[in-house]
Amino acid sequence: xxxxxxxxxxxxxxxxxxxxxxxxxxxxxxxxxxxxxxxxxxxxxxxxxxxxxxxxxxxxxxxxxxxxxxxxxxxxxxxxxxxxxxxxxxxxxxxxxxxxxxxxxxxxxxxxxxxxxxxxxxxxxxxxxxxxxxxxxxxxxxxxxxxxxxxxxxxxxxxxxxxxxxxxxxxxxxxxxxxxxxxx
Length: 184
Fold this sequence. Notes:
184 residues; elongated; 3-stranded antiparallel sheet; 5-stranded antiparallel sheet; alpha+beta
């Protein structure tokens, strides 16, 4: 009886340790995604063929043009979108002379699995008057008004079926090339 109890205790400890490790790994991955997203957003600029820095602004998808991480004067078309409880990042590198974005060449990779946003938006958009507590712009958003974008990833606290507790990783950044309040 003591042996069965000891085995059950060790199995419980191991299972809890594994779950906590998965939660920490998920949080670390989400932080990396949010960090990269905000850097790409802050570096958004006009596309190589003249596209506006922000191309699409919905609650579950955003398309920007950014030179963050690229070499030379190349500006990538970057799309973040939600599909089947995961966040994906698609990148199109312009080619040709003159440079054009061939959407058939988009390279898509899942950057965060297991998001639990449900009806909660992943992306929030704000105008140039955003001071930290403003109400987001109403969808559909006029992309010419957007100066600040927030990303909000809702993640389950446990990696078990039917987990109902969640936490959020949220960050935001200004599209520097679109800022109009440079004195602030």
